[in-house]
Amino acid sequence: METISFNLIQLLILFGSIQGIIFSCIVIFVKKYQSKSSTFLGLTVFLLSISNIQHMLIDVNYLESTSIIRRAYIPWQWLVSPMFYLFIHYFLKKKVINKKLLLLFIGPFFIITIVHFTQLVYHLYFDINYEITDYYQRGLFLYTNALSFIYVPIVIYLIYKMILNYENDHKDVIEKIREETNWLKSIIHIGIVIMSIGIISVSIAILVDANESYFAYPFFVSLSVWIYWVGYVGINRSFSYKDSEQLDENQFIKKTGLTTFNKINTYIIEEKKYLQVSLTLNSIAKKFEISSGYLSQLINTHTKKSFNDYINELRVTTSKNMLLDNNYKNYTIESIGLECGFKSKSNFYTTFKKFSGYTPNQFKNIKETK
Asked: What is the pLDDT of residues 203-247, one digit of tens each?
């Protein structure tokens, strides 16, 4: 058994990490704190904390160099940035997460874990002389940690892009929005500084083969402070965001998006854009320089319809007038449907019946017999 040895910095890091675990458990399991965003915030803090604890237990020799747990080494830090991404995703009221993107986020954790366990299995069952290097020595553990400092900036870039897109989607009230997004940017900026410290630490370990932990203390100490800040500030912001009427998405769009919706509605109706077969959600969104998601929310909030139903109802209304207009008496039913923006006869019939309860022929016959 190796001698367990703590110094003041190690104690501070461990104490901070234990506090982080307590905080995350409260956020995740206490009912009044539960929400999707706070859950992922709790997981972010939890994973950072257990990663720190794992590193410190190795550092103080609590886990012997021959310990299976130490040699297996679970790379929890690879899950931190994905959980933080999901926290911000749900904090900004986004409801659907891209599953392929999520798989790309969490995939590296499982790959690195399998690589570490494969090394351990090879050592135990195939070649007992195969050397598993220590955590701070040049070797698999150190190199995979170095890779994490390449992976994390990619996730940070996607997070930052998501925040900027959110601001862009709410240009009408950008000052109000920035009150809630500036602190997210501050978290990211400080995280970038801490990550830079970590990159320097790992680089020193690789270049000089330090085999010592002291060079990484600035990184772990700053990470512990960041855990506190992200946790307590994040949960407070989450609840102010949740409770504030202006941050309720439907209320927010009702109050701030009416002007934008009216412009779009006028454009579609007065210029008869709904009669174009090629009209799409994306083409309208591009015209008004907003995201298709925000446009969809605007239409749903102000008309209680999806984009397709909103456009198709306008088309059906126009087709009704044409069916009863003598100027179009020589037009076939199919021709009227095509004139109104429907792609085919079957599409016209199905949509017309959905909104009127009749087929075009039935509608025309009923009106003509009255």
From this structure: 777 777 666 666 667 777 777 777 767 766 666 665 555 444 334
Q: What Å distances lie between residue 300 and 254, 305, 348, CA to CA?
A: 10, 5, 23
Q: How far is CA 165 from the centre of its chain?
A: 12
Amino acid at residue number 319: S
CATH topology of domain 8-246: Rhopdopsin 7-helix transmembrane proteins (1.20.1070)
Which residue type sits at 184? L
pLDDT value for 247? 42
Work out the angle at residue 158's Cα, subtended by the Cα atoms of residues 157 and 160, and round it to the nearest 5 degrees: 65
Which residues in the chain land under pLDDT 50? 1-2, 242-249, 253
User: Rounded distance, CA 194 to CA 191, Å?
Assistant: 5
- Write out the residue limits of the CATH 1.20.1070 domain(s) in the chain: 8-246
Reply yes or no on domain 257-369 having CATH 1.25.40.10: no
Cα-Cα end-to-end distance for the chain: 99
What's the DSSP call for residue 211? Answer: -
